[in-house]
## 1
Amino acid sequence: MTMWIDLTALPEIGHVETYRDHPFTVVEIHQHQTDSGLPLTLIEWQSECMTCGTPYGELTTLRSKPISRRCKECRKQPLPPTPAQQENRKRYAMRGRARR
Ligand SMILES: [Zn+2]
């Protein structure tokens, strides 16, 4: 699993991390305690959905796998196909027609 965030120190509020050309801004640091009494730091990130532009927030720990670049609503929808995928589909459809 690739780690998106692997921080040894707490980021400052306003710190920006970029994941796949998509900026995420630190808006809040939350200090929690786990049930076993261990300190747990959660970082609150703010970003704008790459599909619809809606701002959304995410919480991660200091080490985290990548956050989705899309808001919760858009995440339910499959990503639109890339031009290469569309081209493939067209070719596949043509082949199907030729066989008939
Ligand atoms: Zn969205």
## 2
Amino acid sequence: MKLTEPFLKLPIEFSAEEVAKVEQLKALYPDPKSAIMPVLWMAQRKWGWLSVDVMRQVAQVMNLPYSHVYGVATFYTMYKRKPTGDWLVSVCTNTMCGVLGGDKAFEALRDYLGVDHDETTSDGKITLEHAECLAACDYAPVMTVNYEFFDQITEDSALTLVKQLQNGERPQPTRGTRLCTLKEMAVQLAGFADDRGDDVIADGPAGEPTLAGNRLAERFGITHATIQIEVEDLRRQGLRGASTDQARSRLTLV
Ligand code: FES
């Protein structure tokens, strides 16, 4: 049975070719229902966002209850449940970025675009949002466009960037790969080869701000061993949390 999406006025149904891809994805996992996340990405690429009817279609091809699909789609913020622009502009307004200029950059974009947090411009091109810490505090203040980083932004650079997007340009992120639209990005996230060539893969050494943090840690004698002692201390104090090994490996990765 075809389901109809009132907003798009299009039938909400995967094509036969797409259903075959869903079956390929299911075959990759010991339990086929584990393919739900890439299949949700396929759906988001096709329809742009996950409406109730789109989630029902996913439930149908996955042979899962709607409630299961809904539970996954609503857990992860990268799955969009309302129409989202081609360009998702996320400005970090958490503490470090906020005080260093992220708040001002967000306000400048909000005033220029005429939209607030989690709103999309009337032409459907740009969605603006506040972001919580994007794990790039060493490059603060940062913003991302479709999850690619633009470091050490200012009000002016944020505005210039958004104007370039409006003009159809694709400015190069400070780090990482070149920009793609939210729908194009979903191909990779669904686990399929991206047909845009090799330069969609980002790689490279750590940047100077990150290395500066590393040097400071060395200067103050913060090492693997000292972290382990601190963790052991916390354990002795009866503090709950991760095991020593888990905590140490997490801290070492930072
Ligand atoms: S506070 Fe902005 S990246 Fe951490």
